[in-house]
Amino acid sequence: MKQTTSTILMIEPTNFGFNPDAAETNAFQQHLSDFTQGQVQDIALLEFRNAVEELRKLGVEVITFRDLENSATPDSIFPNNWFSTHPEGKLVTYPMAPASRRGERRADIIRHLKETCHCGEHVALEFYEDRETPVYLEGTGSLVLDRVNKIVYAATSPRTAIEPLLHFCGQLGYEAVTFEAYGPTGELIYHTNVMMCIGDTFAVVGMDVVEEQDRDRLYTSLTGSGKEIIEISKAQTHQHFAGNMLQIENKKGERILVMSKAAYASLNEKQLNRLRAHNEHLLYLPIHMIEKIGGGSIRCMIAEIFRAEKQLSDDPML
Asked: In the predicted model, what is the mean pLDDT of the chain?
């Protein structure tokens, strides 16, 4: 089992913009009245294409799909919220809180994932949206996975509920570590991946935004699974998306920590040196419009692709 992959999927936007439906539970979004909708889309598209180009330059396999023309899904650039793939041979799709985002789930992408990843089972959790009292779990926004140690970290919120979380754990064999964390207006932080990143040998954590009584348990779990904890401040978490990083690798097996340019600029030299000790490359990408309007950063734009691990031969000599 590996923590990182060299294959990712990203969705090119066609109608990116401020989504008031999502903003009800995402305090990181900003409405910029100085830009027209067309300008916002044009700038976001340039940021997206540059990110794809830079990732490919470092040897990452980037699969891209284009959002539908004239789509009603302004947040489609964040595909990690509606699906995840796993080397256990499972594809998981998730219940999403903003009704406007549910149209991001596309049958053609699901078919592609099943074929590409050799997924033998589709764990469909979106039925939680249709309950009399619906609850939600928004993919690897809600879930920060330690894939090697089979631990899932989740900051509970209106978008991250216990029942579908435990359903996920039962299907994938994970242990859940839950806690509360707070966003810039004192609300429960909408996604765990805004304040936390798990790498193969380290964890970036905005410990200052975690409920004080939950910190020791979170710290113990991370250190007990062999992670070096690299803490970021409340300001770095809330204002610069410094927690919204993702470790991937390239085809050479070199480790790449991907973050936004804003996140990188907020880090001090000690933090950067500690991150460099765990990664061959720190890749920082300018995505200012996407961050401000969408309320998410580069990790949210990347859906990791894990192909099913091959079954071992019955031949004991192999």
From this structure: 95
